[in-house]
Every structure is written in C-alpha cells, then in structure tokens.
Amino acid sequence: MLVSDLYILTIVFFLAVWGQAWRKFRDPFHPLIFLMPQFAFLYGFMPYSLYREDPQRFLLWVGGDDVYRYQSISIGLVLCLVAGVSYGSRRLTRSKVRWQTVQLHGEKAIRLVGLALGLVGWVAWLYIVRASGGFEGAYGSAYGGGWVPNGYIREMRFVGLGGALLIFLPRVGRGMRLLDWLMVAMCVAPTLSHAILGARRGPALLSLVVLVGGYIYFMRKRVSVILVAGGGMLAGSLMLFLVANRNSLYLGSKAVNFSSPLEHMNRWVSNEYLIGGAAVRYADQYGAFYGARELIWLIGRFLPRSVWPDVYVQLPQLLGVEVDLRKNGGVSREGIASVANFEPSVGAAEAFTGSLWMEFGAASFIVAFLIGLFYVRVWKAARSSISARLIYLFMVALSVYLVMQSIDPWLYRLILFGLPVVLVARILDRRGGRLSRTAVVGRSRESQVYTSPLKPDFRFTYERIEDE
C-alpha cells in the first residue's frame, strides 16, 4: 500500500467513526465528535500534506518503512480510545442521555463566585504583564505572554474560565441576558486576550469553547451537523492561523501579509506527526518511562519551588529514572536526533501517540482505553451532576492538549482547573433540596416530586416528555 493511500484511508475511517457517533447521539459534545476530527487531522491530513510536498524527505524523517508501524500504533491507540468510549456508552440511546435542567436557589451567590474567579484571572494576568515590563514587554515579541517565576500565578490568569461556567450554570433552561453575557465576557477576557496577543492556540480554544460552546452546552441548543462541522473547521482554522503566524502576531508587528493556516501542516522541524514518530522510535530504543516521568511532572508542577527547589533533579534520582524534565519534556533534541534524521525545534510536542508511547510503552493501549472511558463517563454523568456538568466543558477544551501536545499539559490543567470547579459544585450540592431538576426523556408527559430519604428538604421534579 502506498503511504498516501494509508493516510487517505485513515482520514476516511476516522471521519466515519465521527459520523456514526453523530448519527447515534447527535450531541456536539459527545467525546468522539470533538476528538475524531483532531485525530483525522493529526494522523491523516497533516502527514498526507507533508508526503505530497516531499515524499523522499518525509520517508527519511519518519524512518522509512517504520512509518507503517508508527501509523499502525497511532490507529490502534485511537481505536482503543474509541473502544473505551463505546464501552462506557453501551446500551445508551439519544433519549437516555438528555439533561436534567437544574434550577438553583442562591443564584446571586453563584454569580458572585463566578465574578470573583474572573477578577482573580484579571489580577493574575495584569500582574504578569506588569512584571514583564508592561504590554510591550509581555507581548512585544513573537509568541509572547509574559512570565513570572511562580507557576501558580501563571496558570491563575485562566481561572476566569471557571467563573464563566458558573455564570452560565443558573441560566440553564432560562436563557442568557445581556448582563449575563457581560459577566461571561469579563471572565473570559484575560484568557482570550492572552491567546490573541501571544498567538496561543490552547488558550484560544479554551476561550472559544467556554464562550460559544458554553452557550450551546448549558442552554442545550440543538445544532445541525453542518453547523457542527463548519464550527469545527473554523475553530481548527483559527488554531492553524495562530500557529502559522506566531512570528508575525505581536504588539508593534509590521507584518501585513499573513501566512495561510495550511502552511502549518508543511512545517517540518516542529511537525507533531514527525516528532511523534521519532518519540516512538526513541522509546523503542531506550525504553518507556511507565508513568514515572508523568509522576515527576505532576509533583514538580504542583509542589511550590520553595518547598523543594531541586525537585526535577532529586526526584528522578530517588525514583531511579534517568530524565531531566528541564529540557524539552525530559527528552533532549539531541536524543531525538540520535534515532531520527532531524533535530526538532525547541519546545516541539510529540502529540498523542508519541506522548503515550514514550510514557507507557505497550501499556499505552490500556491507557488510551481508560482515557476514552473517562471522557464518556463524565459526559454521561453531566446529565444529572453539577460537578460533571461544569468540569466536562473543560475536558472538551483541553482535548487539544491531549491530541496535539502531550498527556502532561492535558492532565495537569485538568486537575488544576477541575479541582476548584468540583469544590464549588460540591458546595452547591450541599445546598441540597434547593435543586429543581427537570429530565427530558420519552413521549408521554408525567411529573412527580421526589423527596430524598437522606435529605428531607431535597426535592426535584421529574418530568417525562416523549422524544420527538
């Protein structure tokens, strides 16, 4: 089989899985709806474009016949993720996963918490800008954003996204008012501004998902397959545009002619597909970390530097792992070059397959299955759980890190953003019987009031309406 045919078949197969998921559930937030197009781009469109541009160079960099093994591993990992999603959603139909609308008392308190998170995001962002020499110092050069030594402060500029979700929450089933949109915009503004001024695709997608996706998600708006596909293509084009024009998008730039978003697919030394293939060969030759690298990452990221200044040096020694996470995620560019025919650019990502294979080796197939299962379990729980409802939208937005970068930024930000959201949701749950829930399932209409035997003041209305 020709290499180009392999990529075409991969695209067709992945999009067929996407189509089947849409036919069954018609939910734009089903895991396969937003994951499969990203996989089709990464393991289909991107390598196909590179191969068409320069077949000999492509095969040299991807390892010749190793391309078939690499592509097989990639397809296998995606299939395991799909299997996890399918297993977790077995026996489910469209009517069985419809939401219970939640009407919360204490709406003012919820909005105040959301606004407080938005204010924290503003304070953190402006502090970073000021510490970097103002907006010119922070965003006056390519791929800017400012920097402070404290990692918590660097991530805190994004917490306003959680505040925006809390603004949406009480409006479920009631619609958004102008005041609500103004509060949401205030919460999202630091992240969106950072994304535009610094040409950051991750924060840009986070902002879009919360702003646009949050409205569709929380208001449960029906959307057509054309709108879903078109919206996905526009979001993807924006991501590619930001990456392709990172050297031109900054304050004071004189650039007039911007690069086409498609040009990013033909960038060689920073191409996620090529670097992922090199990472697979590196793991095959030197062995996988089997979770040790990720453990060191998480401990080092969450533990304040003042508590353990040399954590990235001493912890690997304690665990007997030869890795230096201060250099390109623990794998030096020279290390990749030793097994490949090129040296990747600084900070380049190995994407889904390369990240999992380097971290877990052959156990990656199990991990991919568990990731798919995790996504679909939270998606299912969102129909009746406030905490799942809030955290799942973050999971949708963070999927770009999982697919296009590596497992570490996805898992780290999921924990960092998810824990505060879950804590707030737990507080809301403890306010107990102040929830009024309406479930939409079935054709006949009936209502009943349920009183919890554990919490006598906990009541909700259960209403049945047949599927249209």
Describe this structure in words.
The protein starts with a helix and ends with a strand. 63% of the residues lie in helices and 6% in strands. It is globular and about 60 Å long. The C terminus is likely disordered. A hairpin with a 7-residue loop joins strand 3 and strand 4. The chain is mostly helical and 468 residues long.
Low-confidence segments, given as residue ranges, are: 432-468
Helix content: 55-70%
Oligomer: single chain
User: What is the number of domains?
Assistant: 3
Let me know the largest β-sheet: 2 strands, antiparallel
Principal-axis shape equals: globular
The span between the termini is 46 Å
Give the C-alpha Rg.
Answer: 23 Å
Strand content: 5-15%
Structural class: mainly alpha
Number of helices, where a helix is a run of at least 4 consecutive DSSP H or I residues: 19
Count of beta strands? 4
Strand order of the largest sheet: 1-2
Residue-averaged pLDDT: 85
Succession of helices and strands = HHHHEHHHHHHHHHHHHHHHEEE
Question: Which features would summarize this protein structure in a list?
Answer:
63% helix; 3 domains; mainly alpha; 468 residues; 4 strands; two-stranded antiparallel sheet; 19 helices; single chain
